[in-house]
Amino acid sequence: MSKPTAIFQRVVAVCATAALTATAWAAPATAVAVAVAPAPLQYVALGDSYAAGFGAAPTSDKCGRNGAAYPALLAREAHGGISVRNAACTGATTADVIRQASVLSRRTQLVTITAGANDLQLRQLLATCMNRLANAACQSDNLAVNRRLAEDLPRGLHRMLRAVTAAAPNARIVITGYPLPFAKSPKCPSVPLTLRVRARANHVVTRLNAAIAAAAARNKVRFVDVEPGFAAHGLCSRKPWLVGAEGMRDNRVLHPTATGQARGYLPAIAGSGLTDRA
């Protein structure tokens, strides 16, 4: 039995309701307990393209959702014990997740969220910085990202988590961070970015994850750090779990591959103590 499967059997056991019905037969003193299968755990995934699975597998879904995304993988590991609805969508900001929360209810038992990066417009920053002739624009965009990190993002994350907890008052809520985009390598011929720019991008994502963790603590929801799982698999590594420069044209760049979803996000979430109190 795999680790995610074992953990989610525990989740279903804790969160779903099981009933035993005693049925009397011919002899008054004899009764047989009949097990009633528990209803599937009601799970809703919210967030951006990372939660949708964009870049991990081909899809015709306008939001980029597909079966290689970690929400689908989590449900698959439960072997029918989880019913998942993925409301995540490519490009979603924290404000968009508040709108996604309209699908939640008191019956929702588990919510996962991956959001925050689009509030910073990180992809646009990297696209600008990949152009060696746009150094001034790169520096300007970097300053804008720093302002958003310090001011806008914490407010957006807090409003988002407050809205989600209000919409799903009986749910276990888990919010994830993001993997660092680049492995620590002095050379990276596959990505047209200098070592300095790559280090700066990693620093921004580290600050983004810190802001998400702080908002999670403030709102008493669980934060899942995916940085350790992706540590040796950023771009510039031998076996990257993120889409590289080949994904620039269709915006897949920096998104987790199918392997990144299955071996980066899935075990981090499944092993995050979902059956413990947040």
From TrEMBL:
EC number: 3.1.-.-
Keyword Zinc-finger: no
Span of the signal peptide: 1-26
GO molecular function: hydrolase activity
Lineage of source species: Bacteria, Bacillati, Actinomycetota, Actinomycetes, Micromonosporales
InterPro entries xref list: SEST-like (IPR037460), SGNH_hydro (IPR013830), SGNH_hydro_sf (IPR036514)
Xref: Pfam families: Lipase_GDSL_2 (PF13472)
Keywords, sorted A to Z: Hydrolase, Signal
UniProt domain SGNH hydrolase-type esterase: residue ranges: 45-263
Keyword Cell division: no
Superkingdom to which the source organism belongs: Bacteria
Stated name of the protein: SGNH/GDSL hydrolase family protein
